[in-house]
Amino acid sequence: MTASPRYLVRGASLYGETSADLLIADGVIAGVGSGLDASGATVVDADGLVALPGLVDVHTHLREPGREDAETVETGSKAAALGGYTAVHAMANSNPVADTAGVVEQVAHLGRRAGWADVRPVGAVTVGLKGERLAELGAMAESAAAVRMFSDDGMCVHDPVLMRRALEYVKALDGVVAQHAQEPRLTAGAQMNEGAVSSVLGLPGWPAVAEESIIARDVLLAQHVGSRLHVCHVSTAGSVEIIRWAKARGIDVTAEVTPHHLVLTDELVRTYDPVYKVNPPLRTHDDVEALRAALADGTIDVVGTDHAPHPSEHKECEWVQAAMGMTGLETALSVVQLAMVETGLMGWRDVARAMSEAPAKIGRDSDHGRPLAEGEPAHLVLVDPAARWTVDPAAQATKGRNSPFAGRELPGRVIATFYAGHPTVLDGALNAPHPAFAGAHAGER
Ligand SMILES: [Zn+2]
């Protein structure tokens, strides 16, 4: 048996703080220190680069099975690797919906076979995302995919009795319900944030209260049941206040913000460019300020991309006809650097918390979000914070061209991603999938 290749990451700034070498061997961080013995190792010069634990996304749409024209597990997990991610949670709104053990096992299998990142399937809360009866939560948890996160994302579990029962079930499974908080009656036909801009444009509005009323209800249900609740893509200042109140009362709630909600506002809808159409919608400048403050003080626990690739025919059309959603995996870390690090609101250690450690805890990914320390799994990302790059969707690995940052210059560039000791990304470009996984089960199909 041949030993797996060893890598010596030389002179990285761990969490943007102390500089050290990292020796990577057999899938783990075999040594941390200065002047480590590099014999037989491939040296990766990390002078000027920040090392963080591999990023974990709690909210990714990989579209497979069923919408392989929009994305596949393989293209999405390549995009994840390029963005610095070593684990992604794939949302359940595929076709068929991931509401059975069979579908979640299929998604996990495709992820392993692709070999670019850990793909953790999210199970649907209700059958077909219809909000009528609970899906087989226990069977998905006990399947080979070991699902711990359940979500009808794209749809809200709006029936309070079903939501209560879902929380009761996941409590027994050490799981979590990730809620897409959107009161459907208050948002029927909604096209954008309800406010001054929607009045001017005459587009039907999505009011903040439609999100806030569901979050308020759900934190009280979570308290009543004693269960874990995760709130997807928080978008309003009022939602932040409710979550802050709930945490102060000891309710077991976590919350997520997307990169785009940290920088973009509903003023962009004046362009009528559907690339800015997203759910929940882009809000106001005051909301953006509140979301940044909440992420910095920990009221919002994680950054989740809500990576939502669409074929161009669903985006290059009139605003009202266009699909909702934006890509995000390949720009997330840069946008967080822009919104949070360059504004002085967060340091790189805080970024590690919000983009790796906390999401891994929420998703029960015990192997991820671990410290950069000897003996830990070698999932890590090297980022060049001084780099500047212009986003070109055509050059990205995702099939989606719907990036709201297309043509913009962003700071910070992912130079390398190590997934289980293997560089999926080197020199800022895709390298190779993990050889222990990639193609390993190719004959099974
Ligand atoms: Zn959603």
What secondary-structure arrangement, pairings included, does this model have?
Elements lengths: L5 E9 L4 E7 L2 E6 L7 E5 L4 E4 L1 E6 L12 H10 L2 E6 L10 H14 L3 E4 L15 H6 L6 E2 L9 H13 L3 E4 L12 E2 L2 H6 L3 E2 L1 H18 L3 E3 L5 H12 L4 E5 L27 H13 L4 E2 L28 H10 L6 H15 L17 E11 L18 E11 L2 E5 L2 E2 L15
Parallel strand pairs: 1-4, 1-5, 6-7, 7-8, 9-10, 10-13, 11-12, 13-14, 14-15
Antiparallel strand pairs: 1-2, 2-3, 5-16, 16-17, 17-18, 18-19
Helix pairs in contact: 4-6, 6-7
Bound molecules: zinc ion.
Can you tell me about this structure?
Zn(2+) 2 binds at residues 153, 180, 233. InterPro entries: DHOase (IPR004722), DHOase/Allantoinase_Hydrolase (IPR050138), DHOase_cat (IPR024403), Dihydroorotase_CS (IPR002195), Metal-dep_hydrolase_composite (IPR011059), Metal_Hydrolase (IPR032466). With 445 residues, the chain is α/β, with parallel strands linked by helices. The chain is built from ten helices and 19 strands. The strands form four sheets. Strands 1, 2, 3, 4, 5, 16, 17, 18 and 19 form a nine-stranded mixed sheet that branches. Residues 441-445 have low confidence and may be disordered. The structure holds zinc ion. Zinc ion (ZN) binds at residues 153-154, 180, 232-233.
